[in-house]
Amino acid sequence: MSTPILSLENVTTYYGQMRILEGISIHVDEGELVCLLGGNASGKSTTLKTILGMVLPRAGRVLLAGEDVTSWPVPRRIAGGIAIVPENRRLFPDMTVRENLELGAVLRGSAKLDDDFERLHQWFPRLLERRNQLAGTLSGGEQQMVAVGRALMSRPRLLLMDEPSMGLSPALVQQNFRIIKEIHASGVAMLMVEQNAAMALSIADRAYVLSTGEIALQGPAAELLSSEDLKRAYLGR
Predict the structure, then answer these.
(1) Domain membership flag for residue 173
(2) Residues 226 and 189: beta-carbon distance below 8 Å
């Protein structure tokens, strides 16, 4: 049995005196796409921040490929192979598309980027057309492409995605998830936080459902997609 690329073991996290996560355990295997579902204030974003090291757990451990990284600072975790596509994209608006993408590879030093750009342009041909355009002048869908591309430029071992469908039109949501599915098929391990449960489950391997900081439900995505338990855990009814 292979070692998961990511494991959270009985993680409990607080903001001040407020408990946000209570003893959660999740894992992502090599090449697996796992989605993390839940309503507002369920603890999804805190889970991502704990994985990145932005929030340190009060109890439990975070493991990256079997190595305990619980005490590692954010830069060391990123250098260790974690990348994130953040909520609301968070690009540098006064830099070009090309410059934003190059920032994703900064920790790789002087590595040649031609192969990476070729791969990105196959997934996102629009980025080739827009490479010299300021990122802040792009549409929301185009900015999402840049955010995903920037994360992939680091050649991550684990890609975190925070609400990739937020703010996109239905047509762009469909396009975005098609590309996520293709990235997954290329072998990138992914943990995706998403409000659109049906869409996320349609492309994921497995899923966890958070409710008030605890794992309320977990299992194969295909099973959860038709589960009445999911409706109760996710919708509260």
Answers:
(1) no
(2) no
Q: How many domains does the chain have?
A: 1
Look at 162 and 191; give whichever has higher pLDDT: 191
Amino acid 47: pLDDT: 95
Find the CATH number of the domain harbouring 222.
3.40.50.300
What pLDDT shows up at residue 237? 43
In a domain, 68, yes or no: yes
Question: Could you tell me if residue 207 is inside a domain?
Answer: yes
CA-CA distance, 202 to 226, in Å (whole number)?
A: 11
Residue 232 has a pLDDT of 66
Distance from C-alpha of 16 to C-alpha of 5, rounded to nearest angstrom: 30
Range of the domain at 17: 1-74+195-237
CA separation for the pair 164, 195 (Å, rounded): 9
pTM for this prediction: 0.89
* β-bridge mates for residue 173, sequence order: none
Q: Rounded to whole angstroms, how far apart are CA atoms 66 and 228?
A: 34
Q: What is the DSSP string of 60-123?
A: EEEEETTEE-TT--HHHHHHTTEEEE-TT----TTSBHHHHHHHTTGGGTT---HHHHHHHHHH
Q: Is the pLDDT of residue 122 over 80?
A: yes
